[in-house]
Amino acid sequence: MTHLQPYRIEELNPFQEWHLHGSALEMEEALNWARSLSSQINRSVRVLDTSDNVIAQFNY
Q: Which strands, in side-by-side order, build the sheet including 45-48?
């Protein structure tokens, strides 16, 4: 059984759909990953919690 990590990192793909990129156990780790990913791929990236609340969004 796979244990879901509490923070999901999603990227906005070219079709304007949010796509799961990965997950992290710690909020700080998720935020750093999302910030870095957004600048690397030049796309919007967001972090969500287990209740689907958007914690942060980074726009390139």
A: 18-24, 7-12, 45-48, 54-58
Are the C-beta atoms of residues 59 and 31 closer than 8 Å to each other? no
Q: How many helices (H) and strands (E) does the chain have?
A: 1, 4
Distant-in-sequence, close-in-space partners of 41: CB < 8 Å, separation ≥ 6: 11, 60
pLDDT on residue 1: 40
- The whole-angstrom separation of Cα 9 and Cα 53 is 12
CB 49 within 8 A of CB 31: no
Let me know how long the chain is.
60
pLDDT in tens, 1-28: 445 689 999 999 999 999 999 999 999 9
